[in-house]
Amino acid sequence: MPSTAGAPNASGTQLPRAAPPFAPLSLSNRFAQLGEAFFTRLPPQPLPDPYLVGFSPEAAQLVGLPPEAAHDPAFVETFTGNRPLEGGDTLASVYSGHQFGVWAGQLGDGRALLLGEADTAAGHWEIQLKGSGLTPYSRMGDGRAVLRSSIREFLCSEAMFHLGVPTTRALCVTGADAPVRRETIETAAVVTRLSPSFIRFGHFEHFYAAERIDDLQRLADFVIDGHYPQCRDAANPYLSLLAAVCNATADMVAHWQAVGFCHGVMNTDNMSILGLTIDYGPFGFLDGFNANHICNHSDTQGRYAYQAQPNVAYWNLFCLAQALLPLFGEGQAAVEAAQEVLPVYKTRFAGQIDLRMRAKLGLRESHAGDEALINRLFRLMHEGRVDFTRLFRQLAELRMADPSHDAPVRDMFIDRPGFDAWAADYRARLQAEAGSDAERRTAMRRVNPKYVLRNHLAEIAIRHANEKDFSEVETLRRVLMRPYDDQPEFERYADLPPDWAGQLEVSCSS
Ligand code: AMP
Ligand code: MG
């Protein structure tokens, strides 16, 4: 990109001529080599007078940008889509998908553009703008994203990474005063997302539905070569790819369940082929535990409720498997081959959820009866709507041999005798394996976060941002970078949601 040295900055003074902070960023675009069937080339639509709302220095590092890059006015212009990046090959990709269980036909990047790919010591990172204007796949949409949802996506992408959950990343969010119509008039924003790949299950479904089997195979080869090279040597690399995606998806969903994350719109077009959490929209973290919690106000049937997520992921993998069928062989043999592979998901998920849930309780060994013990705890939590995050954090303080310190945990439950009975069994179980209270406490605090992006925390940051005060976005980002550490100065970010949080509604409208 052109050097920005000597350009006036926002306050009208000349910037120093020293190395422009983001000159090192130059891009290639391997996805573009797939061919015209996969995308449409087009530039972003500029937004006037953009401003920086949030920036992640850790994400910047992935694409080789120094933290100072965000101070360069050209940074904001570039990541709002107002000026091109050198070597970029900007395009919107086409995909299809199942939405809420129904085949939706062609979708595609209706408001996102792939700028290209940065190759750094941290790997290959595709850079995508979301909210950058109309594309041929916008259908009835306006190609834009609003500030509210863009802040949520920015913060949650980075928070999930720091929780250890597989996810796309977010470099920054920029805003502009341009009006965007949703239920009310809001303002426009652009999130810059980073991912090794933005390919979704829906990309495969698209070419299968169009009966373009050559393109389907080219896409599968592209994903294998770039992201699952171990599949290449298998007897059928495409079956091996399906198995790998089953495993990656199982790992991701087990992580979600363990941190109380609800995605909200697990349509097949929102499922990453790499098993990364993608497309943060009406997501939510559990506050008071309700196994049937529905975070998306538009999900009237509860298809994507917390408890449903593991099975929905499996359903989505069936859609992927169907799309890959032509690559598995002929007729019934292909179907049978797919049916043999798919249960890989169930096995992997069962193992991963067992591992993660036991870790949440500080159980190092696997004993008969552990699952029942864990399920009993969840039932008590469900009945008493016990706060998911605070409960597990507090449970780490329980003493193995001494119930006299139970009050802070016990008082979270409505059914106190029920808790006492459970706690007695939990203690007995803890005593059945080696380890001290102190060791267990340390281990539990490593897997049970203190800080998650609860809706009300995001909402407070959004309200400030609507008044052009972006400091709360930054504070929240920083707190959520260390979700497992006590941060005494930020204790209030671990509080129960205030009463007004119950009225917050998040929907597909973003
Ligand atoms: P989502 O529910 O956000 O995953 O979006 C589903 C489909 O609708 C995708 O193809 C999106 O690109 C598209 N879409 C969502 N919002 C908009 C919008 N405001 N303008 C254009 N396309 C959109
Ligand atoms: Mg989507």
From TrEMBL:
It catalyses: L-seryl-[protein] + ATP = 3-O-(5'-adenylyl)-L-seryl-[protein] + diphosphate; L-seryl-[protein] + UTP = O-(5'-uridylyl)-L-seryl-[protein] + diphosphate; L-tyrosyl-[protein] + UTP = O-(5'-uridylyl)-L-tyrosyl-[protein] + diphosphate; L-histidyl-[protein] + UTP = N(tele)-(5'-uridylyl)-L-histidyl-[protein] + diphosphate. GO terms for molecular function: AMPylase activity; ATP binding; magnesium ion binding; manganese ion binding. Its cofactor is Mg(2+); Mn(2+). ATP binds at G108, G110, R111, K130, D142, G143, R193, R200, D279. It is an enzyme of class 2 (transferase). It comes from the Bacteria. Mg(2+) binds at N270, D279. Its EC number is 2.7.7.-, 2.7.7.108. Keywords: ATP-binding, Magnesium, Manganese, Metal-binding, Nucleotide-binding, Nucleotidyltransferase, Transferase. The active site is at D269. HAMAP family: SelO. Nucleotidyltransferase involved in the post-translational modification of proteins. It can catalyze the addition of adenosine monophosphate (AMP) or uridine monophosphate (UMP) to a protein, resulting in modifications known as AMPylation and UMPylation. Belongs to the SELO family. This is Protein nucleotidyltransferase YdiU. The gene is ydiU.
